[in-house]
């Protein structure tokens, strides 16, 4: 069984995105159960960040590839790059695993875009996992709580709460230091930084103005009147 | 410009949300001509042509989508792909929420169009379509020009008021015969009312010391007619089922009133509640992050505040 896990380094935190850690831990469980190989893949804009990818080895990856290229500015551009990696380098995949959303861009939609591009099913935002003999059953929310069996050739994105984070052992950390990150440059030869849209400007959001009226416990009678007025109004 | 919306049900919240998005477009654009606004909704009924309902006047048409095989994320995306192509829509909007993001992303991949999430504003300027969206834990606002149509936009709730005038929109039905690739089974929900639909919600956080203390929250909820949700730590403790988690990776809520009790106001939680009309916080720490994002802040121990508040409200409204 071959598992691809797409992971992202959050530059300001200097670590792998939180729900991608869950994705790696889930892949590790699949590996333990089904003797799978885990291939961690990341697209980063500088080799300076590749050292943070070693965490993937600590968490059980058998290989780690870093595609170094200027960061994509639209979710579709990211998805098209990921599709190119899958189709050209790993067409024999069984599962593709992502974290549900990254804490930087917050697109939260790249796994689904990849699924649409490839024409394969996507199970989005897995909340819980159960291993039943030969089956992997996941819980998710699609207009209500649902469960489904994960068949092969499915893309899965995991909520950061889907599993309890595994604590790797010291041996795994030491072994990881010896392993190399495979660096691939200029894989995306055409201009794939922005597809279908252009990033024009970045600014600070105007926060919604809130009344910020403060009360103490002595003023609860007044507060209760306000609450009831708001509830009726 | 032809505008489509997709929703899972025809509840007032969804109608108001769609109407609000149209108003945003109209108010912020300098050059827009809206030809048609159509709200698409999935239906489990076969005969919906006789459906009569009131909607905000800026929603022209309701289309119910029927599939005898049932609906899932891929089948909905395939159906919407056909609709967008056949009817020439320029943009389709989805409300925020995991299920909608799921569909929007698959649709985007199928038609090779971006699906933008966390969108707070949309407008047309010199015939170009622009959006603003939140990123980096809501600390930055990105402005994009969308160059590929149809555009797919997941638009946040609770930001724009609907049109006040109402009417009966025209209703039609579209039949599909699509087999869903993903087979999912309903799990019984432990909760009666979905948090997304509730008008008053009480959220409980780590300030609650014991599971048994939930009953003081339940009493207040009963008096106010509120639903109860919680922040992530209480889900991890197993005090609440997962569908009660409020926040970025839980449920995004947009009630009239959100009462946050013993919740500090971490960004992941607040991003799921900011669409609330009014936020009321009960917290013993006046420097807690939630105080800056609330309309009413009660500084005090929740074990003192909540029972007293319940007592006073009971006096006013009767038990």
Q: Could you walk me through the main structural features you see in this protein, from its secondary elements to its overall organization?
A:
- The complex is a heterodimer of chains A (233) and B (319).
- Chain A is α/β, with parallel strands linked by helices and 233 residues long.
- Chain A has helices at residues 18-34, 54-58, 75-89, 110-118, 170-178, 220-232, and strands at 2-6, 9-10, 15-16, 37-44, 63-68, 95-99, 122-126, 128-132, 135-141, 145-149, 154-158, 182-185, 197-203, 213-216.
- In chain A, the strands form three sheets. Chain A has a seven-stranded parallel beta sheet, with helices on both faces. Chain A has a three-stranded antiparallel beta sheet with strand order 8-9-10, with no helix packed on it. Chain A has a two-stranded antiparallel sheet with strand order 2-3.
- In chain A, helix 3 (75-89) packs across helix 4.
- The longest helix of chain A has 17 residues, at 18-34.
- The radius of gyration of chain A is 21 Å and the shape is globular.
- The N and C termini of chain A lie far apart (58 Å).
- The mean pLDDT of chain A is 92.
- Chain B is α/β, with parallel strands linked by helices and 319 residues long.
- Chain B is built from seven helices and 17 strands.
- Chain B has helices spanning 12-28, 73-87, 98-111, 214-224, 232-236, 267-270, 302-317, and strands at 2-7, 36-43, 55-56, 61-66, 91-95, 115-125, 128-135, 140-146, 151-155, 166-167, 170-175, 185-186, 200-204, 227-230, 257-261, 278-283, 296-299.
- In chain B, the strands form three sheets. Chain B has a nine-stranded mixed beta sheet with strand order 8-7-6-9-5-1-2-4-11.
- In chain B, helix 4 links the parallel strand 13 and strand 14.
- Chain B is globular and about 60 Å long.
- Strand 13 of chain A pairs antiparallel with strand 8 of chain B.
